[in-house]
Amino acid sequence: MFKQARWNEPLLLELSDNICSNVENIPEGFPKELYREKLSLPNVKEPRVIRHFVRLSQMNFGVDLGTYPLGSCTMKYNPKLADRIVSNKKIRDVHPLQPIDTVQGVLQILYELSQYLAEVTGTSKTSLIPAAGAHGELVGALMIRAAIKDKGEVSTRKEIIIPDSAHGTNPASASMAGFKVVKIPSDENGLVDVEALKSIVGNTTAGIMLTVPNTLGIFEKDILEVVKTVKDVGGYAYYDGANLNALLGKARPGDMGFDIIHLNLHKTFATPHGGGGPGAGPVCVSNDMAEFIPVPTVEFDGKKYYLNYSVPKSIGHVKGFYGNVSVLIRAYVYIRLLGASGLKEAAERAVLNSNYLLSLLNRDFYEVPYGDRVPRKHEFVVKISNKLIERGASTKDLAKALLDYGVHAPTVYFPLIVEEALMVEPTETESFDEIERYAKVLNEVAEKAYEDPERIRKTPYNTSVGRIDEVKASHPKTLCVNWSRIRKSG
Q1: What number of CA atoms fall less than 13 Å from residue 288's CA on the CB side?
Q2: Is 68 left (phi over 0), alpha (psi -120 to 50) or beta?
Q3: Which residues lie closer than 8 Å to 186 by C-beta, 6 or more apart?
Q4: Residue boundaries of the structural domains of the chain
Q5: DSSP letters along 462-490, please?
Q6: Which of 137, 394, 440, 469 suits 446 as a labelling partner, its CA being 20 to 30 A distant?
Q7: Once rounded to an integer, what is the mean pLDDT over residues 106-123?
Q8: What pTM, to 2 d.p., does this model score?
Q9: What is the CATH number assigned to the segment(s) 80-338?
Q10: Domain 347-473 part of CATH 3.90.1150.10
Q11: Distance from the Cα of residue 88 to its chain's centroid
């Protein structure tokens, strides 16, 4: 296979020494010893600059290059038509401070999108404002707090119940909203332990935060009983929409009894979201929670689209303007492209691809926790076998070795209830050929780890950067990111 050379050729060929800085304008408090009196900048021909940065771009990996099976991230291929539409200057150049009469087209798109999302989730009202999934979680937790405060119970209902398999943002969001997090264990099938849940709910329960299917890729078969158990004691049910990709057109969280649902539009509805953003995390709510929704909402009076700020019990503003509009419009395009039947087919193919990939793995090296025979949904979790661990190999070693094959590793070491875990989500956009290729690589890497664990511990070999000392890279004593830290450290 092609071996990528390490990029160490210096870009700076000829240095210009006639560009000097103005030492007299040093900001107050900035140490003079860190200020350069002469700034040498490269004088490089344009072709060299272009080739340098194109080469840098080729060192990166993206969903357009190959399978990106990060479990729970839903890194599926994004249709380019959505990018083309949102890049049209009639949309791109719209400013949020324009008069309402001049942005009726954009407001119509946002209004229709909010209606589509309410229909998909089985709810009655949508706020498009939250900037991402975790932000949507925080908004939902704040709405629960507002609801119990409205009932005069804020001093007693202080607990949010969260499964031990949950995404880490769940307890973080609940805590930021002022709640105490109560962890509920998973049972032997990887599901919420209903009996344990019944033993901890009561008049201190504000609500529960759940992901369905859960992070193991298993559907919570007792979800109706779980939600009822919480609601019977006066609590609210919150749905983490990270895994909605498995349920599109098949089941709706609102029909399961959830009061608040956040959606990751940058996942389920195929908006590019690599490198930390951008995202969009709309919140869909039931009739009972609609009066607490953030403002503004996009409304239509039969003649004109407008922004509604008149929600008396609203939790208020949670973000500037009206959400990440470019992401919202991409999701709108995606929904219109696929339609109801297409969304349903996307979920079916996601589940099929997940189970097909799982069926191809060598079970001598990859074990399936919590019921091997239970079908998974759009993603699955495996752990490396004791056979590999006894040879000194780890999940991290296998993940690093995958990079030498030109494929991206899955999510590792999550969920935390599975040791040495790999969390794999191929998504519906991968072909069977790609699924088979990825399975072959996973199996080959495991076999090589068993045969030569010493070599696998030093992977990757073919990437532009070798294995990084992750502890050193993130240690506070070695990671200096500003001049004040450098100054204090001497």
Answers
A1: 15
A2: beta
A3: 163, 164, 165, 192, 193, 370, 417
A4: 80-338, 347-473
A5: SSSS----HHHHH-TTT---SHHHHHHH-
A6: 469
A7: 97
A8: 0.86
A9: 3.40.640.10
A10: yes
A11: 27
